[in-house]
Sequence to fold (598 residues):
Amino acid sequence: MKMREPLGRVLGNRRGMLLVSLAALLATLATSFVAGRDAVGSSMLLPWIALFAFEAGPVLGLVVAAVSFGVFLFSPALDGVDVTTTFVIGRFSSFALIAVGVGIAGARLRRSERRSRRLVEGLPLVMYAEDENGLTYISPQIESLLGYGVSDWLTDAALWRRALHPDDRERVLAEYTKAVDAKTGFECTYRLIREDGRPVWVHDSSAFVPEGPQSYRQGFIVDVTEQQESAEEAERNASLMRGLIDGTVDGITLTDRAGRIVIANQPMLKFARELGFPRTGLMHERLLSLADSITERERFEHRMRELEASPDVESADEFELRDAERVFQGFTRPLTGENGAYLGRVWTLREVTEARQVDRIKDALVATVSHELRTPLTSIVGYLELIGTGEEPLSAEDERFVEIVRRNAARLQRMVEELLFLSRVDAGGLELDLEDVDVIEIARAALGSADPAAAAKRIALEFDGPGALRMRADGNRLGQVFDNLISNAIKFTPERGCVRVSVGSDEGTFIASVSDTGAGIPKEEQPRLFERFFRSSSTRDVPGTGLGLTIVRAIVEGHGGSILCRSSPGEGTTFTFTLPLHAHAVDAGADRAVAATR
Fold:
């Protein structure tokens, strides 16, 4: 750290004024010899001698000034000059003018120096200057920064090198030496050890000022400890965040507004290598490259185009690779700023191959067990019907026992039928017998069948719809949909509640809804309502198989329709399904129904 002060600041201090006085003295002496004694006179040197003495001290200056003025005034008399009043006034004026002129200049320079020093010493940084011999100036802020005083730095040339942190010393000295040798700027962030042993992060910046043999280096040091610690904290947090997303099982990618990949965690990179994603391109373009290997190519391509065109769309899909027999779930969600502006999208890829294999095994087992249970259950129910038909009637207690057995056998038989139904759906074997039916009549019939259960809980049943509405559908299956939705609504509605069925049409679409005034379904559970065997936490105390909505959605989608749920805790639930009025049977196994009752 070596630099020299600017010229104005040199002339503005005490040493500078001594130099000015000495230079003026020599100039006057030279003028005397060149112009001759008669023109100037050696006595003209006396004012400068007096000013020079003032720079040495005020007392000496006053004494020398008095003697000099006396000699300056009366020395001409020794040379034969006639001393008159005019001569005395002239001599006094000359002495005064020289003294005042140089004094004013010195005072201004000293005020300028004080202002400059106050400015420099008021800055939140340390300024320094050095030449080839070491520091020539360092501002007093260095003491509050590192604990060492200004005199310590100016007298100990090796202090800076000793104060360098051991872990930074080699790097900093190498960079500094390179800058000095090349006579270029020096820019470096490093640690210095305070006098009390604490490390301080500083940013050191200096420039080389070429002035021939008097060249110097000037610079400043800024305390950046807080910024450095903040940067290190941010880096640690970033490392933790990176470790978090890399430690997940799911592949996660963040894309910007244009779809360019910003972040991709390690599981996503692994999936990309295994699936053969292109190394370049937007996210949806890379995914589209897999379209030929997806079992449902059209649906997959439609979803990718939708995500490209609609930034605010959320999605949840499941796709299977044809040849690899791997199954993935994909989830996307738009990322928005505080003002709602679209910033990008989060993509999540989860492999569920093993889970789907387990599902297939489970479904096969359920189907097998259901088939095996169906025959003995049929026999049990048949023989239960015969009990009590003999010559001797059953006692009241026996009648009660038989009724309990009959009720539970019927419940088990319904469960077996539901399982067999789902097995056929999974195998793509759902058959619909389409015919021209009156859906109003079907809905009213379902309400009539549910009337005893509603009356037992004093639940009001309401219906809203036209007098008749005909469409092509499987009447039995459509009745099953109404039966399941209405029975669910009654089951989960407290006493004195209300269940309302609404039926209508709009532009070639049949619309039906079943609403209740029950406890409702928590929002976080609603996406899982159509998972097989899932039951909401709000209905765990109500008996059920968890398969009712599976059947409902399978039948609705088999007709080419769709079903959705709206629910708010404490405000009830509404299931709404739509069907084309001119329905045609579709392959129910193409989009596997994975659903559950509440």
Q: What stands out?
A: The radius of gyration is 50 Å. The chain has 18 helices and 17 strands. Residues 1-13, 34-40, 584-598 have pLDDT under 50 and may be disordered. The CA atoms of residues 371 and 420 lie 7 Å apart.
